[in-house]
Fold each of these.
Amino acid sequence: MKTYRIATIPGDGIGKEVVPAGQQVLEALARCTQNFEFQFENFDWGADYYRQHGVMMPADGLAALRDKDAILFGSAGDPDVPDHITLWGLRLKICQGFDQYANVRPTRILPGIDAPLKRCTPDDLNWVIVRENSEGEYSGIGGRVHQGHPIEAATDVSILTRAGVERIMRFAFKLAQSRPRKLLTVITKSNAQRHAMVMWDEVALEISKEFPDVKWDKELVDAATARMVNRPATLDTIVATNLHADILSDLAAALAGSLGIAPTGNIDPERRYPSMFEPIHGSAFDIMGKGLANPIGTFWSVVMLLEHLGEFEAAKRVMAAVEAVTADASLHTGDLGGKATTAHVTAAVCALVERTEAAVA
Ligand code: NAD
Ligand code: MN
């Protein structure tokens, strides 16, 4: 029997509600297999920790995560702590510290979900957005001088490196190649941003030659938003810079029904470090502490975590349970127009996971 060591970091807001729910699903799964078990270690990092210690996570925090097989993360963000402190002090510290340079964000319209695009069938919207996760607009380089004076100046410098662009392009082409349509769209803005984005385009062309069987095209980021709404079926795998993909993936999640459903993996493709899985949503201040958060985004992230561990059958089993639950409108949370609570949805998914029939995907 294999033992997987999983770190759980609920963080802030509804992260504290959905991460325990995700752990419950993994525990339900472990109860019905002889193949593996999970050893969980929970880390109470986040804004509460910050209020006590002045930092979002301890200085040696990465070392405590280093030997885990995967990390399940909730959200960083608190009404009383500035967002750049919570984000940089925890989530980005882990993403950058473990060089999780590929952020993978699948989007599909799950059964039973009422998505806003009325002319779109579930088959028309089946995307994976690959977000460059280590540099670009969120490189963290910049500064402020003369604070508070009229001559105050501030910069956020976007950095793209050839090595960074090559590795994310290669990852995206490979992912596109593994999907049935073998179709990649490279998002750019090289008309206005005439240095780094031009290099981005050039590297895309170079890497494309390693993947002659992948069909690919380029789209400007602004036009891409319209294409996602008007011609969703023309897209499959999408690669974009850190900021562009951040925005496009919230749009993708909304088009597929709700921000509460969308999952993501922060992946170190070379497996030097643990990868981290999380719902794409944030702390949801408006509903936190009420038991109303949709846990589906976390459960789908758990599916990605299992796939990353190589447990494909188990992943299918959880996904089948998730789809059976979304198909039942009485198990929809408020964001989907329903009345179900986090606990209802979690219990339903756990019950299905533990029933062998759910294994047939
Ligand atoms: P948000 O995702 O927290 O909320 C946006 C809206 O979507 C809210 O109305 C919320 O109720 C709803 N929503 C989100 N997830 C839901 C779920 N699972 N179930 C039901 N409804 C859900 O985004 P925001 O308001 O822009 O950000 C709030 C805080 O979260 C900020 O501090 C922000 O910095 C942080 N944040 C963190 C992460 C992260 O750690 N990965 C990501 C995004 C935002
Ligand atoms: Mn985001």
Amino acid sequence: MTQENPSTQALKWTSGSLHVLDQRVLPETILYEQYQDAEGVADAIKTMRVRGAPAIGIAAAYAVVLSLKQHYVENDENWKNKVKQDIQLLSESRPTAVNLFWALATMQTALDEQSGNPIAALQSLAEKIHADDIAANRKMGELGADLLKNSKGVMTHCNAGALATGGYGTALGVIRSAHKRGLKTVYAGETRPWLQGARLTVWELAQDGIASTLIADSAAAWLMKSGAIDWIIVGADRIAANGDVANKIGTYSLSVLAKQHDVKVMVVAPTSTIDWESESGEQIEIEQRNPNELLNECYIKTESLVNAWNPVFDVTPAHLISAIVTERGVVLNPSEQQGVRGLQ
Ligand code: MRU
């Protein structure tokens, strides 16, 4: 993990506790907060101090280790119930990113197989989940960059970078790898209302010396019309078996626009983001966040008739996606295959 750029590391496990880079205050402030219990980590996920599907899953895996350290007592079976309660609490922190549930299930299964003190084995497993995510991102970076040969330019949405993962990033991993091979033109959409693109993505790329151009979300159609880009590259929060993809709100609109302008859409995500139990996007729960993320102070204080609808993810149907890149391989035109089922 040492080769990753330390200034964009979302999570650090040091001296037996979890250090979380608070993404609410980036880029102005670099603030790591230390967590010693699962309850704190669940709150960090809920409040988006840590965000991005793979990073949420990794944080939850470390949180299970913190729970064990807090509750495991030899010859007292009650610790198991307390850890179970913490796992339940973590599972309620955010609903859409399936990596959270995958990581918790992986940790629970390993825990069930342990006899004796489980802390060392579970800590190794959490560290492995973290290291595997970085390795997957590097592999996907190369596979995705292979698809970008002779690309004029790309656009990304939200932040699917080191900040959203164990390191290197999914969509931004492809952009990092492609940049090393000569890709010059990278656009990032602001990603309202939380501004992951404006606050996180362009800053993260700059930390690696990669120039990018920020656009308002509403400028995407005009950008595509200009001919400056030939690929949209995004991450995913959950991929259904048929290849439908839940990702940050606005991904669906970009994909519809891409079709109109002959721009291709690449989704980059590790297989821990695939929900084999969801046949299609219909089964994916879409998180609704507080309307106050949209309503400014003025409206909240002065106009009780103004409401806001704030779904923070949407589902892009498989037929609008040109390629799904995973660490197990690339699925081209998933709606013409059997979705992503061939990767199982
Ligand atoms: O609400 P967020 O910031 O957690 O949403 C993040 C995204 O939608 C990312 O695109 C997705 O998690 C992939 S991150 C590699």
